[in-house]
Protein backbone atom coordinates (compact mmCIF):
# COMPACT_ATOMS: atom_id res chain seq x y z
CA UNK A 1 0.00 0.00 0.00
CA UNK A 2 1.36 3.36 -1.06
CA UNK A 3 0.53 6.69 0.69
CA UNK A 4 0.39 9.92 -1.25
CA UNK A 5 1.80 13.14 0.22
CA UNK A 6 0.38 16.58 -0.59
CA UNK A 7 -2.97 18.28 -0.43
CA UNK A 8 -6.14 18.30 -2.44
CA UNK A 9 -7.47 21.03 -4.67
CA UNK A 10 -10.18 21.79 -2.10
CA UNK A 11 -7.57 22.27 0.64
CA UNK A 12 -5.58 24.61 -1.62
CA UNK A 13 -8.68 26.68 -2.41
CA UNK A 14 -9.60 26.97 1.29
CA UNK A 15 -6.05 28.10 2.13
CA UNK A 16 -6.20 30.66 -0.70
CA UNK A 17 -9.58 31.94 0.50
CA UNK A 18 -8.33 32.35 4.09
CA UNK A 19 -5.25 34.22 2.82
CA UNK A 20 -7.41 36.54 0.70
CA UNK A 21 -9.68 37.38 3.66
CA UNK A 22 -6.69 38.12 5.90
CA UNK A 23 -5.16 40.32 3.22
CA UNK A 24 -8.46 42.18 2.68
CA UNK A 25 -8.55 43.04 6.39
CA UNK A 26 -4.86 43.85 6.82
CA UNK A 27 -4.27 46.20 3.86
CA UNK A 28 -6.86 48.89 4.80
CA UNK A 29 -5.77 48.78 8.45
CA UNK A 30 -2.16 49.26 7.43
CA UNK A 31 -3.10 52.09 5.07
CA UNK A 32 -4.97 53.89 7.87
CA UNK A 33 -2.00 53.44 10.22
CA UNK A 34 0.40 54.89 7.65
CA UNK A 35 -1.91 57.86 7.01
CA UNK A 36 -2.20 58.50 10.75
CA UNK A 37 1.60 58.42 11.07
CA UNK A 38 2.02 60.94 8.23
CA UNK A 39 -0.57 63.26 9.81
CA UNK A 40 1.14 62.98 13.20
CA UNK A 41 4.47 63.86 11.62
CA UNK A 42 2.96 66.94 9.92
CA UNK A 43 1.45 68.03 13.24
CA UNK A 44 4.85 67.74 14.91
CA UNK A 45 6.53 69.70 12.10
CA UNK A 46 4.15 72.67 12.27
CA UNK A 47 4.18 72.75 16.08
CA UNK A 48 7.99 72.64 16.13
CA UNK A 49 8.18 75.38 13.50
CA UNK A 50 5.87 77.65 15.50
CA UNK A 51 7.86 77.08 18.70
CA UNK A 52 11.16 77.70 16.89
CA UNK A 53 9.82 80.93 15.37
CA UNK A 54 8.60 82.18 18.75
CA UNK A 55 11.90 81.30 20.42
CA UNK A 56 13.92 82.93 17.63
CA UNK A 57 11.89 86.15 17.84
CA UNK A 58 12.27 86.28 21.60
CA UNK A 59 15.99 85.48 21.69
CA UNK A 60 16.95 87.40 18.53
CA UNK A 61 14.90 90.50 19.29
CA UNK A 62 13.53 90.72 15.73
CA UNK A 63 10.19 89.75 14.26
CA UNK A 64 10.06 86.28 12.70
CA UNK A 65 7.66 85.53 9.85
CA UNK A 66 6.35 82.02 9.20
CA UNK A 67 4.52 81.40 5.92
CA UNK A 68 3.77 78.78 3.23
CA UNK A 69 6.54 78.54 0.63
CA UNK A 70 6.89 76.60 -2.61
CA UNK A 71 10.58 77.28 -3.13
CA UNK A 72 11.84 77.59 0.45
CA UNK A 73 12.84 81.19 -0.25
CA UNK A 74 9.66 83.29 -0.43
CA UNK A 75 6.08 83.27 0.84
CA UNK A 76 3.26 82.10 -1.43
CA UNK A 77 0.55 84.31 0.06
CA UNK A 78 -1.84 81.34 0.08
CA UNK A 79 -3.47 79.50 2.96
CA UNK A 80 -2.21 76.10 1.77
CA UNK A 81 0.75 74.99 3.91
CA UNK A 82 0.87 71.54 2.27
CA UNK A 83 3.48 72.86 -0.19
CA UNK A 84 5.94 73.49 2.66
CA UNK A 85 6.80 76.55 4.72
CA UNK A 86 9.57 78.78 5.98
CA UNK A 87 10.33 80.91 9.03
CA UNK A 88 12.75 83.80 8.71
CA UNK A 89 13.94 86.79 10.72
CA UNK A 90 12.17 89.81 9.22
CA UNK A 91 14.88 92.39 9.87
CA UNK A 92 13.53 95.06 7.52
CA UNK A 93 9.89 94.53 8.61
CA UNK A 94 8.42 94.14 5.11
CA UNK A 95 7.09 90.58 5.69
CA UNK A 96 9.05 89.30 2.67
CA UNK A 97 12.32 87.40 2.98
CA UNK A 98 15.24 89.41 1.69
CA UNK A 99 18.62 87.99 0.67
CA UNK A 100 20.23 88.85 4.03
CA UNK A 101 17.40 87.79 6.31
CA UNK A 102 18.32 84.51 8.00
CA UNK A 103 16.17 81.43 7.61
CA UNK A 104 15.03 80.07 10.97
CA UNK A 105 13.40 76.92 9.65
CA UNK A 106 12.33 75.37 6.35
CA UNK A 107 9.99 72.44 5.77
CA UNK A 108 9.42 70.65 2.49
CA UNK A 109 6.09 69.61 0.99
CA UNK A 110 4.04 67.28 3.19
CA UNK A 111 3.99 63.62 2.17
CA UNK A 112 1.49 60.78 2.26
CA UNK A 113 -1.59 62.71 1.18
CA UNK A 114 -1.51 64.99 4.24
CA UNK A 115 -2.93 68.50 3.78
CA UNK A 116 -2.51 71.53 6.03
CA UNK A 117 -4.50 74.72 5.58
CA UNK A 118 -4.66 77.87 7.68
CA UNK A 119 -7.37 80.41 8.26
CA UNK A 120 -7.87 82.16 4.92
CA UNK A 121 -6.76 85.60 6.16
CA UNK A 122 -3.70 84.28 8.05
CA UNK A 123 -1.17 83.40 5.38
CA UNK A 124 1.77 84.91 7.29
CA UNK A 125 2.35 84.58 11.00
CA UNK A 126 4.46 87.32 12.54
CA UNK A 127 6.11 86.50 15.86
CA UNK A 128 7.10 89.62 17.78
CA UNK A 129 10.18 89.94 20.00
CA UNK A 130 7.97 89.62 23.08
CA UNK A 131 6.89 86.14 21.95
CA UNK A 132 3.33 86.94 20.89
CA UNK A 133 1.94 87.04 17.36
CA UNK A 134 0.45 89.99 15.57
CA UNK A 135 -3.15 89.74 14.43
CA UNK A 136 -5.81 87.27 15.52
CA UNK A 137 -5.70 83.58 16.37
CA UNK A 138 -4.82 81.26 13.51
CA UNK A 139 -6.52 77.93 12.92
CA UNK A 140 -4.80 75.17 10.97
CA UNK A 141 -6.88 72.30 9.61
CA UNK A 142 -4.90 69.07 9.18
CA UNK A 143 -6.34 66.17 7.17
CA UNK A 144 -5.15 63.08 5.34
CA UNK A 145 -6.28 60.19 3.14
CA UNK A 146 -8.55 58.83 5.88
CA UNK A 147 -11.08 61.55 5.06
CA UNK A 148 -12.75 64.50 6.78
CA UNK A 149 -13.84 62.54 9.85
CA UNK A 150 -10.19 62.20 10.91
CA UNK A 151 -9.31 65.87 10.36
CA UNK A 152 -8.13 67.96 13.31
CA UNK A 153 -7.55 71.63 13.99
CA UNK A 154 -4.56 73.26 15.59
CA UNK A 155 -5.41 76.69 16.98
CA UNK A 156 -2.63 79.06 17.92
CA UNK A 157 -3.57 81.96 20.17
CA UNK A 158 -1.74 85.30 19.99
CA UNK A 159 0.23 84.24 23.06
CA UNK A 160 1.68 81.32 21.08
CA UNK A 161 -0.36 78.71 22.97
CA UNK A 162 -1.30 75.84 20.66
CA UNK A 163 -4.31 73.60 21.20
CA UNK A 164 -5.98 70.94 19.08
CA UNK A 165 -9.64 70.35 18.39
CA UNK A 166 -12.20 69.22 15.83
CA UNK A 167 -12.86 71.28 12.70
CA UNK A 168 -16.31 72.16 11.47
CA UNK A 169 -17.71 69.76 8.90
CA UNK A 170 -17.21 72.36 6.17
CA UNK A 171 -13.58 73.01 7.11
CA UNK A 172 -12.82 69.28 7.29
CA UNK A 173 -14.39 68.64 3.88
CA UNK A 174 -12.65 71.67 2.38
CA UNK A 175 -9.32 70.31 3.61
CA UNK A 176 -9.91 66.71 2.56
CA UNK A 177 -11.46 67.21 -0.87
CA UNK A 178 -9.94 70.42 -2.29
UniProtKB/TrEMBL annotation:
Residues 47-160 form the General secretion pathway GspH domain. It is a single-pass membrane protein. Keywords: Cell inner membrane, Cell membrane, Membrane, Methylation, Transmembrane, Transmembrane helix. Its main location: membrane. It is found in: Cell inner membrane. NCBIfam families: IV_pilin_GFxxxE. Belongs to the GSP H family. This is Type II secretion system protein H.
